[in-house]
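Thread: Modeling a multi-component assembly for a lab meeting

Hi all, long-time lurker, first post. My supervisor asked me to bring a structural picture of a complex we are working on to next week's group meeting, and I have zero experience with this. I have the sequence lines for every component (351 residues in total). Could someone generate the structure of the whole assembly? Inputs are pasted exactly as I received them:
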Amino acid sequence: MLPAMSTARPGTRAGIQALGLIVAGGLLGLGVNVVRDGGLPLDRPILAAAETDVFACQVPDAVPGIVEPADMSEALSLFTRGAAFVDARGSDAFASGHVAGAFHLQPAGACQEADVLMDRLLAAPAVVVYGAGGEGARALASELAGRGLPRVQVMTEGFDAWLMAGKPAMSGPCHACLGYAYGGSGR
Amino acid sequence: LSAAASPGPGRVAWLGDPRLAALLRVGVGALFLYAGIAKGLSPAGFAEDIANYRMLPGALVPLVAVTLPWMEILAGMALVTGWGVRGGALVVAGMLVVFAVGIGQALIRGIDLSCGCFGAGEAPATWLMVGRNLLLIAACAHVYAFDRGRFGLPIPRRLSPLAG
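Re: Modeling a multi-component assembly
Sure thing. I ran the full set together rather than chain by chain. Output:
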């Protein structure tokens, strides 16, 4: 025991230790995030996933657009004709597997993402939105159509069906998406 | 001298046994080490879990997702190694309080969410987890009060301020 420290009250010393651990842990975490592949961008807000399928960043005057469903064979034909695919699932699900070349847009928390991708989506001959099979994809598709995309369709079956059917898929983050919240889970 | 330092005779004397404190210390430390590593491996998933608690503004979520796992890892290491035990116990107990409040408020507000306790995409949060956290907080209090550094790594002389 150093003489100087032995005069400090144990509670004070524990507080200093705690503060040290918190500061060191924080700095370590920030450092690792900078160094690691696919670190989280710190300047991009991450919002809670919508429980209600409500798009988090609705344009005030937008009228939900009309969205046509697309079954598996129609989706595949759109895929071969160069349609843009949009994945409406969570980022872990996206990173572990998605339709080849798909963009990632979550139903919630994707405002900036949608703005960034809008040009890319407008340039595509058609846009196909898919999810895990639920309503999330439909809500997102309707929102995108309301933002002025002319041809938006919803894949009625989810990604698992696409995968099961042996259609083109890939894993990893969405590189066009400004690095929206992906970990190193992409393989 | 306090009763804590020299547990008196009686049936509950074992409660203040430094060996029990050391056992709890290593156990809680290992748990936090594991939890921190699991979360640190998948910051994106952890960030989504944090966001789903709806306690933090979205702008702060990435920062917390990136730093919190490493705070857990360091605090867990402090407990396991016995270097800075009391500081580690304070940090871990503080985090457990925050986690318990987070889960509790989500359950009260009817938010259906996965805990995110040990990395992304596992069990849904329940009141059982709040109870588990309360037990772990009690363990931290025990460690803080009674741990004497048993079974810890030896502390180099220069780092002796870390003791206690």
